[in-house]
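dumping these here so i dont lose them again. two proteins, back to back, each one seq then structure tokens. dont judge the mess
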Amino acid sequence: MMHWHLIIIIILIICSHASTSTSANSGGRVEYLPGFQGPLPFYLETGYVGVDENEDVQLFYYFIRSESDPDHDPLMLWITGGPGCSSITGLLYEIGPIQFEAMHYNGSLPTLTLTPNSWTKMASIIFLDIPVGTGFSYARTKWASRSTDNLLSERAYEFMRKWFEGHPEFVSNPFYVGGDSYSGVPVPIITHLISDGNEAANLPYINLKGYVLGNPSTFSEESNYKIRFANGMGLISDELYKSLFHTCHGEYRSQYISASNIGCRQNLKLYEECIDGIFADHVLEPYCSDPMRLIKLPTQKLVDEYRPLSSSDCRVYRTHLVYYWILEASEALHTRKGTIKEWKRCSDLNFTKTVYDVRPYHQNLSKKGYRSLIYSGDHDMIIPHQSTQAWIRDLNYSVIDQWRSWKLNGQIAGYTESYSNMMTYATVKGGGHTAPEYKPEECVAMFKRWISNQPL
């Protein structure tokens, strides 16, 4: 009798472990999405991969196969910034194959349409919700819910190794890590971890080729370049710019300015008055009331406030259509009910910043010979293009293709420069934070040329 009890206990333990393992690394195809008419004309897969100790961190992803030649085209891991903004931002608003239709919101389910400017035309892309607590990613314990720049990067590396176990057909494809905004911090770290893992003979071997960064956060002093940007855009006068530089000595972050430096603080107050009402994501776009307030309004109130504004009048409102869509789409996306309290496009996280300067990572990756594409929307005041050019100069590599324009359809689309460390820098003329949202046609042309090893 005791033997039967023991056997039953063992069977229960095995079944429990098998169930845990299956749920920890699961994915399934999505053929239909609410708001899109008919079956999706591309391959979309969503799922979870368990990482960290006891797989207490469950990371959610959206995977889209290349629409050209998925057997041979590059594969890219894409991480949206924040930290804490869901990768659905990249999928629906920046580089993915579908987007919300630009129309007045009428209270109905937002409509999805195909976009001709998807990066998935020439690459397979994994859009990952990371760090934990972002989008549909969740933690099973309170301890696992914490995150830092280093933890984020280590979990992303573990995610990729486990994802490849379930998708071995992609192991030999050229692999890139990509992201924008705050992802300028973790992307070089993740790339470095993969490189080190390959050198340590970790399996599976990842065919790492390089990384892609748009409007990237890189070092803590970059915010000082906002003053220079504002002057260049005519938002502040030359006289105020010179006075700011003279009184503040090039350091404009309040925590580093002495309380006794009255002149600097007065000039900064004048600067803040000048840019009050400027939309920092794109200085030419209209400044709109806080869209986060709108998602808390009753539907009819939202309709009343949104109706006078088209997506071109107030682009930022369109980014919040996803809140009304996701309520209908979560089941189609194979998400796990009850694992998160409330879905947010950008979440408040239990996150601690631990890395303040990733220039050393860029330097090390350059020495190892990895390719990189760094681009800036030139109307972005959050991460000004001047700060990005500054840290690239700090790497001190020689120029092999001097500053010049790059064109699309016979028109200047931006400016570019290439360096001996296989790094290409490009501005996107008229782009904001981030560039593909504002200039999708130019950005897909830029990416296609670069990923194909062609000059911009």
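---- next one ----
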Amino acid sequence: MLNWACLRLLLVLVFSANAVFSGTIVKTLPGFDGELPFTLETGYVYIYIYIYMLYTSVGEIEFFYYFVESENNPAADPLLLYLNGGPGCSGLNGFFYQIGPLKFSVDNYAGGLPTLLYEPHAWSKTVNIIFLDSPVGAGFSYANTTDAWNTTDTKSSAQVTTFLRNWLRDHPDFQTNPVYIGSDSYAGINNPIIALDIIEGNTAGLQPIVNLKGLSLGCAHTDTIVETNAKIPFAHNLALISDEMYESAKESCNGTYANVNATNTECVESLDAISECIELISPQNILDANCALLSPEAKEVKHRRYLRGNAGNFLLQPHRVGDFYCHNFPYLLSGIWGNYKIVQEALGIRQGMIGEFHRCNVSLAYTVDTNTVVPLHKILTNTGLQVLVYSGDHDMVMPHNGIEEWIDSLDLTVDTDWRPWYIKGQVAGYTRRYTNSGYRLTYATIKGAGHSPQEYKRKECYTMFDRWIHYYPI
């Protein structure tokens, strides 16, 4: 059986690529009034996949990207490769909803082409950002063979590493910039795999050298069992279940709530009782309304078609159901916007390569082959990288206590113990910093935020990131 190091090295060797640069500068976008107040480049990076050991071609992938130059000093500012979760969410998810320079105008939307607004707390204020449609099948990225469409956690990570080297080859002005790998949610699995691929490739002499300096992980999927086990104590800590229910489950399930044996009836019954209490709570943010009719996945296509064709039927603001604000509603607007022909023409999308654009494509030919990357994080503690891990404290998808547990398992030295961090004198969250020789990991919570925290607290998340990326205490 291959160990992690051998598997990663094999994948680095498997994915050989020659890139054809096809980037264009986008001056205007439908829905935005006037020229864009930042530099946006979009394009494809062509990756040819060839298995040396079998002397056979697997196929070709065209990865689509959105590159936003820093609004500060692009020649010197860090380069952040930002990956969205899912797996299968487009780079436009991060661009519009999380850290990018534009957002949708939601108020009073009643159909048609959505309006775009400038976002003052974009991370592009301080770094250059590559938003990537990855894995293949996300957004506008596509492949030319069935084998190339099929991917896994480890394969897609190796492909992203190849993309980055090819992108840097086509953008020599950025080859000396500090490079950071950023991830959201599920892409937390890919983040450390990519980092180790980069380090091993640099050591092997692959060109261009990637000047990797650190990682940024938001509400990161890292270990399936740890995250599953964390949800019960999370619910208890936030008073969603009673002390008696928690103690019953803890005792009967022996503190382990993942992969429960069906013969343990007492444990199963305890978990069923807990499920009845939390099943109608929004896991993204337990304080949000649970707007099931505006789910971001299976029903998204139907709703965005309705919104485009029935603008006159809206008597209420569509992002509200009764008295409740629906956090997921703005997700629908990216699907509406991204399927307009004039939008795709402005972005430089090749027609006929994909079907309908989805914010998150849930029908990927994707196989999960990695359930934990904690061992990889342990390896990275000896690399001298700077790491930021952050979490919303009301997120029940990736509970903060589970993230804190796997960080504790790295056996790092606490450099700065638990303390509040502030914005203009107000507590924005809590933080702790760890070290191991030159390696430094900063952990931060964002008070009141859900999954993903950048969607709930843009100002706070930008301030946190801006301080960290420039080596200031949060």
